[in-house]
Amino acid sequence: MQAILYWLKERFRDAWLWPLNLVRDFPARSGRLVVTLFIGGQAVLRLPLFIWQAVRQQTVAAQSRQWARQAGGWLHLLLVQLFDLVGGPEICQFVMHLGMHTSPLTAAEYTAVQPIFGPNNLRYQDVRVAQGGILNLVFRYNGGLAFATWYTVHIPLVTNGGRNGRQNLPLLVHELTHLFQYHHVGSRYLGEAIYYLVTTQRNCYQYGGASGLKSCWQQGTMFRQFNREQQAQIIQDYFVKTQEGQDVSAYLPYLVQMQQRKL
Ligand SMILES: [Zn+2]
Fold first, then answer.
1. Which residues sit opposite 128 in a β-bridge?
2. b/e map of 11-33 (b: 16 or more CB within 10 Å)?
3. How far is the CA of 218 from the centre of ligand 1 (A)?
4. Alpha carbons 21 and 26: distance in angstroms, whole number
5. Cβ-contact 159, 165 below 8 angstroms
6. What is the strand order of the sheet 101-103 is part of?
7. Across all residues in the chain, what is the average pLDDT?
8. From CA 105, how far away is CA 175, in angstroms rounded?
9. Where does the pLDDT of residue 61 fall: very low under 50, low under 70, confident under 90, or very high at 90 and above?
10. Which of 30, 91, 130, 213 is 20 to 30 A from 240 (CA-CA)?
11. Among 29, 35, 37, 71, which Cα is nearest to 186's?
12. Cα 58 to ligand 1 centre (Å)
């Protein structure tokens, strides 16, 4: 009986988040959409000039491929930002959670992750860890790969090692980095993460370790220039190294950039 009441309470919470976020996220969501519309408008205005130049230089074929890629990226932004504006993330999470068990971060988890992401960069009380139910089926087909959608972290109940995946704090840090991305750039993080996951055949996590990061920093590479999976992996590895008392000097400048929301 108590389990049912808890489940109902969580579903009411999910439902309430839709109107709540429609209002409190409206400034951020509409702001991102306005920027995208502005960029699109600018591109349309400049298009005749670009076409004329390409015709003169006989580079129409090569250029049009690039234009198509840029237009595709722009369209993706437009769609996900409209999706965010109408509260698509809250609706999707409400429906998905119907078939799962969800719970908030524990006090111990919060204490472990809060110093990494900062006190005000995430709505920690809104984070939900989803396990069990239809997720058991999902993990059977994706090889037990944990994943994050909007404000939900999906973690296997039983991992290959036989433990509850929730005991894996580095994994939680990785997935919370995706929540952080969502909070600050919106649903585009999801399309971008999947794009790299597919186009690099899951090699998208590699960033060259501490030495690679050091040389990236020396060359002026910013945190935002890493792909979404690299970003999550960098923060995960930072967490592991601090726990093991290892040198994290290569990671610190990028951690700071993340905390400054430069995504
Ligand atoms: Zn990831």
1. 152
2. eebbeebbeebeeebeeebeebb
3. 25
4. 7
5. yes
6. 101-103, 128-131, 152-154, 147-149
7. 93
8. 13
9. confident
10. 130
11. 29
12. 42
Give the distance (Å) from ligand 1 centre to CA of residue 253: 21
- What's the gap in Å between 229 CA and the centre of ligand 1? 5
The residue with tokens 């840090």 is 173
Instruction: Calculate Rg over the CA atoms of the chain.
Output: 21
Is 251 within 8 Å of 237 (Cβ atoms)?
Answer: yes
> How many whole angstroms from 181 Cα to the centroid of ligand 1?
11
Tens of pLDDT, residues 97-131: 999 999 999 999 999 999 999 999 999 999 999 99
**Per-residue pLDDT reduced to its tens digit, 15-39:** 999 999 999 999 999 999 999 999 9
Tell me the C-alpha to C-alpha distance, in Å, between residue 8 and each of 4, 101, 187, 205, 259: 6, 11, 27, 37, 35
129 CA from centroid of ligand 1 (Å): 15
Q: Which of 25, 141, 152 is nearest to 95 (CA)?
A: 152
The alpha carbon of 232 and the centre of ligand 1 are apart by a number of angstroms equal to 6
Instruction: Return the structure tokens found at 168.
Output: 């894996």
